Amino acid sequence: MSLKGEMRRLRELDWRELDIKEAGGWPWSLQLFSCLLVLGLTFAGMHWYLAAPAKEELDRVRGQEDGLVRDYRSKAAQAANLEVMREQMSVLEGRMGELREMLPTGAEVPSLIDNISETAIDNQLSIDFIRLRSPATREHYIEQPFDIQVQGDYHRIAAFLAGVAGLPRIVTLHDMTLSPEGGSGQRLRLSMLARTYSYRPSEEGVP
Fold first, then answer.
1. Between the CA of residue 43 and those of 39, 50, 51, what are the distances in Å?
2. Do residues 191 and 173 lie in contact, with contact meaning Cβ atoms separated by under 8 Å?
3. What is the tens place of the pLDDT at every residue in 154-195?
4. What residues are paired with 36 via a beta bridge?
5. What's the half-sphere exposure (Cβ side, CA atoms, 13 Å) at 49?
6. Which Gene3D superfamilies does its entry note (predicted)?
7. Looking at domain 108-199, which of 3.30.70.60, 1.10.150.130, 3.30.565.10, 3.40.50.10840 is its CATH number?
8. How far apart are CA 170 and CA 198, in angstroms?
9. Is 145 helix (H, G, I), strand (E, B) or coil?
């Protein structure tokens, strides 16, 4: 059949009378167009039903790729430095153990007070009082404050302070005031707040 004849049939075709049941009698160009339309719709439906969800999943995975690469590089760097980190941790744990040994336990606080008194006596100071305050509980340690008041000349007081700072247990000195005692000005009174600290073990896992 010629192309001109086919075009004539299309022009003469009454589109309102087309019946899908009689598609075999349609002009071949209309049949071809209908087949292409059906194929196109079929492919579009398959893409929407199958390919679109897969594409969304692919985009989601690609979005996670950068984060996964960063995590991998971070963990690879940590693994490469694992031995160094273990050595540093061992050093820190050793240092922490040494510092804990410098903290007196609650039972050792009276002994520490005796050591401070002996340091004052060794430097020929008069002790007015060494008086404990109530302890204060912190997150990782217990703070034990106490007031100290002694009398003596400037050089002996300085030696006393150096002796307290050099005790094997940790003692920190605060709020120091130095005032003359008597009329000569040679004798001074030292008043200060001192603090020592006891290590407080973690309570995790304790019922």
1. 6, 10, 10
2. no
3. 999 999 999 998 888 888 999 999 998 876 668 899 999 999
4. none
5. 6
6. 3.30.70.60, Helix hairpin bin
7. 3.30.70.60
8. 9
9. strand
